Amino acid sequence: MIFQGILVAISAVAATLYLVLYRKAPPSRRRALVKATAAGSLMVATIIEGAPITLVFYFASAALCDAILAREDGDDFFVALAVALMAQIFLCLTFLTAWTGIDAPFVAAIGLGGIWVGYFMLIWGGLVRSRVAIICYSVGMLASTYVALGTDTYGQFAVIGMLFYVLSQVLISLEIYMLRRNEIEAVLAGHSVWISYYTSLLMFFVAFCG
User: Fold this and answer.
1) 63-98: buried (b, 16+ CB within 10 Å) or exposed (e) per residue?
2) What's the whole-model pTM score?
3) Where are the domains of the chain?
């Protein structure tokens, strides 16, 4: 238990260092390592805790995706998106291990579908070559969100975590496709993306390891 606590602390320190020192720093190996450590430490803690193996793979995929994105190499964008989609598949499978069902499945599906359509109406003009890839990834995220609504985990942290994750993806879409890079809104959105994303990682960990 103490070792798991140390790993979570390392994860939190890495996340804070990335937010404060490295988020706006030039791409480097150290930057990629710090960013990946936030999810990577949770992966190791998950293994020790004996959580579902799919959750281990989720954190591993998240760490890999974070390391790729930290490089800020345009050629790696689709690779990162593929890894992110793989992470969503593992997350969805993890949620299925705690699936109990949704009281109003059709209402939930229609509601999420409406939000999904509205989201794409908002960013569609900014998408050019990446439309198909973004749609595929967002479908995976939509599936994870739907399954999360029917899970029964410790303190309902899976649902809370998924809401934070969706928030991070909406914010990053606004940052990339709608806001100018140096605008104060873009700067605030960038910080909010990382905070909401990392909060989702912690919520997923607590949901299955708490």
Assistant:
1) bbbbbbbbbeeeeeeeebbbbbbbbbbbbbbbbeeb
2) 0.91
3) 2-209
